[in-house]
Design goal:
Length: 355
């Protein structure tokens, strides 16, 4: 039986997507920018990508639906957690030596059995010195009465506990090694509640969708964890113990500060930020190539590298606004945000039909 069952499930889904798209490894490698050998390892289950990006590119190239992308992200998270657990060093069990017939004989410094000292054995104790004889067994009737009494007390205690808390009689199912995209259960609800306890603006519905993915990723960035959007053991521990707070600027404050920085085009700048992130400083959006956009003005990984910034800085609203203004100042336009820039251009009015 294959030990890496989660890795095989993940690989099976990749193979299914590749077969459906009818792509060879060579063709898929060219479309995704991934080496052919890496694709083969991922699809056979002999290797799991270090991050979700390669799997996302493969799935998108094969025409995966949003639901399939969410499921693939969940399968990758489980396979990644399984791989991490398999790589942890295991302590060797201590050897236990058993000797039949009692403990082994004492050894001398030379390693041989100890010689007899010639001392005479201790005399047997006199009858009066012997330990008292063991007590006689209790009568069977008494044992039966004690057993019945204990059973009655146990049943009474159980009945009281059930009557006092009828809704808590069933213990909740334990959560798996990871909580990830596409999951719908109480484990997701617990993650959402803990994020809200850290100050995140998030709905608590038990469904791990795009909003929860963004908030989990933002928390990981702020907590100094790997921002993979998967709630594994490090993130679970941080959600319990980290002092990280996720409170951030309200939309009204964002609008005001954007206008103060973009004095040349305040209204357009606010419209761009609203289009990009809904004025949410912790907004994070994954791209089809595995990269991500960060913060109010959705600064891409590439632009972030050019500016010498980090994801944590990009989630700071002041830094993000200043960085966006620097990008705007290059050409004094919003060409870095082509999709939203097109929305700024007024559309000509439709002439009314003449009668």
């Amino acid at each position: 039986m294959n030990r890496f069952t989660e890795a095989e499930r993940f690989a099976s889904r990749l193979r299914e997507l590749r077969r459906r798209a009818d792509y060879s490894y060579e063709t898929l490698a060219q479309k995704t920018g991934t080496s052919r050998s890496s694709l083969h390892r991922y699809c056979t289950g002999s290797s799991v990508p270090q991050d979700y990006g390669p799997a996302h590119r493969i799935a998108v190239a094969c025409g995966a639906t949003p639901a399939e992308l969410r499921e693939l992200h969940r399968l990758w998270a489980l396979a990644d957690a399984e791989r991490a657990e398999a790589l942890e060093p295991t302590e060797s069990a201590e050897a236990v030596e058993s000797v039949e017939g009692g403990s082994p004989p004492e050894e001398t410094e030379e390693g041989g059995p100890a010689e007899s000292t010639g001392a005479e054995p201790e005399p047997e104790p006199e009858p009066d010195d012997r330990p008292p004889a063991p007590a006689r067994r209790a009568p069977r009737r008494l044992l039966f009465v004690l057993a019945v009494t204990g059973l009655v007390l146990a049943l009474t205690a159980w009945g009281v506990s059930v009557l006092s808390s009828p809704t808590d009689s069933a213990a909740p199912e334990p959560c798996g090694p990871v909580v990830s995209m596409g999951q719908n259960d109480e484990c997701v609800r617990d993650v959402q509640e803990r994020l809200r306890d850290h100050g995140a603006r998030i709905g608590v519905d038990g469904s791990f969708g795009p909003e929860t993915l963004r908030r989990v990723t933002a928390f990981q960035v702020l907590a100094g964890l790997v921002p993979n959007g998967v709630v594994g053991d490090p993130t679970k521990k941080a959600l319990r113990e980290s002092p990280v707070r996720m409170e951030t600027w309200a939309p009204a404050k964002v609008r005001q500060r954007v206008r103060e920085v973009f004095t040349e085009a305040p209204d357009d700048a606010v419209a761009i930020a609203d289009c990009q992130s809904f004025l949410d400083p912790l907004h994070i959006l994954p791209n089809t190539n595995g990269s991500r956009n960060w913060g109010l003005f959705q600064i891409s990984d590439a632009r972030l590298a050019e500016l010498g910034g980090t994801p944590a800085q990009a989630l700071d609203p002041e830094w993000n606004i200043q960085a966006a203004h620097k990008l705007w100042s290059r050409e004094r336009d919003f060409s870095d945000w082509p999709h939203c820039e097109r929305a700024l251009k007024p559309t000509p009015p439709t002439p009314s039909a003449s009668r």
